[in-house]
Specification:
Layout lengths: L1 E5 L2 E8 L2 E8 L2 E4 L2 H11 L10 H9 L1 H5 L1 H14 L5 H9 L2 E3 L15 E4 L4 E4 L1 H10 L5 H20 L1 E4 L4 E4 L2 E3 L9 H15 L11 H14 L1 H9 L5 H10 L3 H16 L8 H22 L4 H12 L5 H6 L10 H21 L3
Helix pairs in contact: 2-4, 4-7, 6-7, 7-8, 8-9, 9-10, 9-13, 12-13, 13-14, 13-16, 14-16
């Protein structure tokens, strides 16, 4: 069987009924790639020029919506990228919101009434997006990199961030309840509030769509890294299912309990992520370090389970490297203009991860077992 290497893994090619099926080897058996893995691979193989196949549904909605049709060719690739990510049974909500969406690109830079400190804003009740182009330019000027190229990369990333909110939000007008990704408001249940995780994962998806956007315009840097760490623990499919399915933290909690059967520990993790999101004052705090320590511990247990289940050394090392790249470090804290001493227990999570990395290397030298 023919094969090639992608992401340091052999991908086998099988032809069936004039279709190509991609497979990988797991425990000596060839299995089909997951939907997410196949999409990632196909996206890599797609030509960048000039033919993009758009769904007739998205094309029809865009043509019949005044603001989308006014910049039809500009909006279509963004809408298609999002549509492709959404699980089939959740696409209808996205289509419904798109039908009467009002998008104000605001290139003239007028002040925002709501979300004036944000780069962009989605009002779920009015089903309206407005981009704060002035704020984007101000951020770029502050970092001495304002140019047409960086402006449009930052602008595009901001727009698709808000479009992801459109795709993952359901507004119940009768009850005045907004369910958006992992978050539900208003609600008397503390566990329904997950704005931080919601914004963080929206950023993860947005940077996947516009990977060359300037990284200093992360609106939710810590939340983005927490969401990235969770994605490496649970898998992107689980995160996507929960996010677009408006399942709150129920599925995430269930999957974390499969790693460590302690529901209260999982729920406390999400509560701390949300509390940390709302802390805006500078000064000492231990939430950041505690959250990362909990995530590192889950990751450690996942890796040990993977080893027990026969995952290859190559895959284990790739997982560790990927997780390491999204750790919150002292250097990151400093780069954000903050003082590492304000996070006195952050080093503990980094030490635990370093110990895990060292242990895996030692195990690898004698063969993973």
């Amino acid at each position: 069987m023919e094969y090639f290497t992608y992401n340091n893994e052999k991908i086998y090619i099988e032809f069936m009924d004039n279709n190509i099926i991609f497979k990988k080897e797991v425990n000596g058996n060839l299995i089909n790639l997951s939907d997410f893995e196949e999409k990632e691979l196909l996206d890599k193989l797609k030509t960048k020029e000039p033919f993009i196949i758009y769904s007739t549904i998205i094309e029809g909605i865009a043509k019949n919506n005044k603001t989308l049709n006014s910049n039809y060719d500009y909006f279509l690739p963004f809408l298609t990228f999002i549509e492709d990510l959404i699980p089939e049974n959740y696409k209808e909500s996205f289509y419904k919101n798109l039908e009467n969406i009002n998008v104000d690109l605001n290139l003239e830079g007028k002040e925002l009434e709501n979300g004036k400190d944000s780069l962009g804003y989605y009002d779920s009740e009015l089903n309206k997006i407005i981009i704060n182009s002035k704020k984007i330019k101000d951020c770029l000027k502050l970092n001495n990199c304002l140019s047409d190229d960086t402006f449009w990369k930052a602008f595009n990333k901001t727009l698709i961030h808000e479009l992801f909110h459109v795709a993952s939000t359901h507004y119940n007008k009768d009850e005045n309840i907004v369910v958006s990704g992992f978050d539900k408001r208003p609600s008397k249940k503390l566990n329904d509030s997950n704005i931080g995780l919601n914004e963080g994962f929206t950023e993860v998806l947005s940077y996947a769509a516009v990977p060359d956007a300037p990284d200093f315009i992360y609106g939710y840097i810590f939340e983005t890294l927490f969401a990235s760490q969770l994605s490496f623990i649970l898998g992107p499919e689980v995160m996507i299912e929960s996010y677009f399915g408006n399942r709150g933290i129920d599925l995430l909690t269930e999957k974390l309990c499969e790693i460590n059967n302690d529901k209260s520990k999982a729920i406390s993790l999400f509560t701390l992520i949300d509390l940390n999101y709302f802390i805006t004052d500078d000064g000492k705090q231990t939430l950041l370090g505690t959250i990362q320590s909990k995530l590192v511990e889950y990751f450690k247990l996942k890796i040990l389970n993977d080893i027990k289940n026969g995952v290859t050394e190559e895959e284990i090392n790739l997982s560790i490297t990927s997780f390491k790249n999204v750790l919150i470090t002292n250097n990151l804290i400093i780069s954000r203009g903050k003082n590492p001493s304000d996070y006195p227990n952050l080093h503990e999570s980094i030490e635990v991860f370093s110990d895990l990395e060292k242990a895996i290397k030692e195990m690898a030298s004698v063969g993973l077992k």
